Amino acid sequence: MSRPIDRQRVGTAILAFGLPPAIWFATAALLIGVDGTRGGSVGRIAMIAAIYAAPLVGFAFIAFGFGRWRDFDRQQWLFMIGVAAFYWIVYIPLLWMVFTAVAVRGSASEPRSERSRVNIPRVSRHSPLRRNSMRTSEWFVLLMIVFLLVAIPMSAQERGQRGGAPAAPAMTLTVSGFPDGGQIPVKFSQAAPGAAPGEGTSPAISWTNTPPGTQSFVLNMRDLDVARNKTTDDQAHWVVWNIPPTATGIPEGAPKGPKLPDGSYQISATGQVYRGPGAPATGPMHHYMFEIYALDTKLTVEPAADAFETRANVFKAMQGHVLGKAVYGGLFKRPQ
Q1: Do residues 329 and 289 lie in contact, with contact meaning Cβ atoms separated by under 8 Å?
Q2: Does the global pTM surpass 0.90?
């Protein structure tokens, strides 16, 4: 699913497509005349090109000035294209009418010799063309006032956020039974009494400060001290994905099976089950990390036979969709 379009990007779009075209058009009008009379047929062609190429300046303004275009998803690109279409169809023709109205109004006060030189006919003060031009100018002034009242505060808010204004609270993750960085109780390990080989009882896990636009969560538990098959790959103790966006945690003692009660998938090196910590008693404490990711999409990854392949597929599908992340760690080795 697509991320919602925020107010800051709306303001950015309005400014980016509104101001550069107006400046571009005004410059072209001064250089070659609003109707291209200073350049003959070439001037007219240049003026038309300036008008309808002007929104491209807006695209360039966003791409190079704001540096946000790489983050846009399909919905946001459609929005930007819609804004561009508005300026091509409505805004730029309105600029043309206003500058034409100004030219017509100015021609009425010019000496006859000047009017004949630029081929602009004298327009009567009471003619319909003059009255329509005045109404067009009045509407344009009103629209520009609305434009400035809406766009500039939005842009100021955008700059304020990028300039160090308070950001949204970061996600937090909590695993019950031990403090962050503390020792994981035997109860949640493979060494717990009655635990099946390679399994154990999963702890209660909760998180807060879900980012706006979250569509699913991914939970990853891993042993950082394991180097699997002489690679940088570590142990897959528990991977849970497509956790519903309304969830705020996973209760203690998650059941076996391909899916949890909330519909999310699970897998580990043991199978479709939580794999508790199991570092040997003869070695050092191992570092077990619980990671929660908030995503702006629901993944289409299906479980593979191999947990490590599945985890790789999940993490590959997550790229470009992570809205937030939180981590909680614990230490464990089997008791002597």
Answers
A1: yes
A2: no
- Domain assignment present for residue 24? The answer is yes
Between the CA atoms of 30, 32, 37 and 40, what dihedral angle is there, to the nearest 10 degrees? 180
Radius of gyration of the chain (CA): 32
**Distance (Å, whole) CA 50 – CA 44:** 10
Per DSSP (E only), the strands in 244-314 are 249-250, 265-267, 286-295
Residues 62 and 158 in one domain: yes
Per residue in 273-303, pLDDT (tens digit) is 999 999 999 999 999 999 999 999 999 999 9
| Total domains, the chain | 2
Range of the domain at 130: 7-162
SS3 assignment, position 237: strand
Query: Rounded to an integer, what distance in angstroms lies between the CA atom of residue 142 and that of residue 94?
Result: 12
At 297-331, the pLDDT tens digits run 999 999 999 999 999 999 999 999 999 999 999 99
Question: Which residues, in sequence order, are CB contacts of 54 under 8 Å at separation 6+?
Answer: 20, 21, 24, 25, 87, 92
Return the CATH number at 319.
3.90.280.10
